[in-house]
Fold Methionyl-tRNA formyltransferase, mitochondrial.
Amino acid sequence: MGAPCSRTWRELLLLPGTFIPRCSVCYVSQRRPRAGASERQRVPAWGMPARMCTKILAREQSQRSFAETLSGRGRCQLSPAEICAKTDAGRGSHTWICTKMLSRGSSQTIFTGRGRCQLSPAEICAKTDSGAGKGRGICTSTLPEGGGRQGIRAPRDKPPWRILFFGTDDFALESLRMLNECRRKSNELIEALEVVTLPSALPKGLPVRNYAIQSQLPLYEWPAVAPSTWFDVGVVVSFGRLLSEELILKFPYGVLNVHPSYLPRWRGPAPIIHTVLHGDTVTGVTIIQIRPKRFDVGPIIMQEEFPVPSRCTAKELEGILCKKGAEMVISVLKNLPRCLENKREQSKDGVTFAPKLSPVISCVRWEEQTPTQIMQLERAIGASLPLQTLWMGTVVKLLDFVDVPDIPNLAVHQVTPGAVRYHRQTKTLLVCCKDGWVGVRTVVLKKKLSAADFYNGYLHPWFQQTAQAPLETCRFHTLRLAPKVKKSSKKQEGVHL
């Protein structure tokens, strides 16, 4: 629209060749402009209580029905307060715009849309005397062009849901797979499922991305996000990006997050690793509602506690918890409104954090770490980050850690931490550490070597005599890695399509 004209809305629409938009919501004044009114007095609802007509018009509707809607006969006129009651309590499942009424000389600004701000119906009510019609404002609902599914709709109070899924890795894949299976079996729980994932430089790609392509699910690459006005609820599993408040508020039921710990213990991106690393005997899965600006602080919707299996690795525990988390998401979706009503805030006691681990933690500190700590470290990170140490100035990787059985004449007294012995009966390298010994069966030094190969090549008395290596150097030394300096980078927020 350009400058205001002297014609009424009805007259404009009934002109030959008038463009009728695919979806529109009109201004409806409390009374018609009086005869002979000036242009700015003909601006809809000028100085009148905020009223609007909520009927959405499809492409095939005639000019006549469109005009009837504009005149108020197509559907009853509603105030912002009534809009709140009939939609989603003002949370904003679609974009609402309140055009602030300015002085009489600013009618062109109002008409062209400059100076507008996006507000939910609840905010409109607050700014216009609780929607009673005394405020100076015009309320409309704007719809993106070109998308049939982007229209205004009232949020559902029961399934089937339309879900936007955010995820990346194998842990998230299990939830996505179970959601998609529910969608394919029947439409009783899930009507539609679309996916947002992160860009990846990996040749094989991210698991969630590969599955979405294979299953022909609509896929978006962050920061591009699907039109969230169409979805009922979002589900985030192992995504690693903060969602903006604007994006979260687009979902009538908010955004759910599957977190693999018994919150508030182990908030952060690596809860499973820290569970194993610290020797926790119990863990859990928590479904929370996401809040903006901070990770893992939202109210708890569902929570279950599980024992940690003995000698369980982080990879094995992830396989257990990802299935539990997927089952819990399905359970929440079956009773979503009731679950949200019964949500509770997290306790402020017992809060611990699980930050990402750097390669520095993979360096075994023989003088400081006990056998139990080393074994827990290997079970926590060994699958993705093998433990490292120094052998005669060369970095080596240690694989296949085992507990050391009770061996006679094997003491730690007067033995330097890092000293290596070969046990022929078990074909294991025994490495001295603080308060004990740990067993290693595979060493990577230029190539992968068994314990027997390492002994024959580097520990046999013949090698030590030939190499003339001092006895002090023939042991494992702690590798000192400089921590990486974290670059400050602003993460991109989602962009709505």
In short: Residues 1-33, 37-80, 82-121, 127-152 have pLDDT under 50 and may be disordered. The first helix runs from residue 9 to 13. The two ends are 23 Å apart (CA to CA). The CA atoms of residues 186 and 310 lie 39 Å apart.
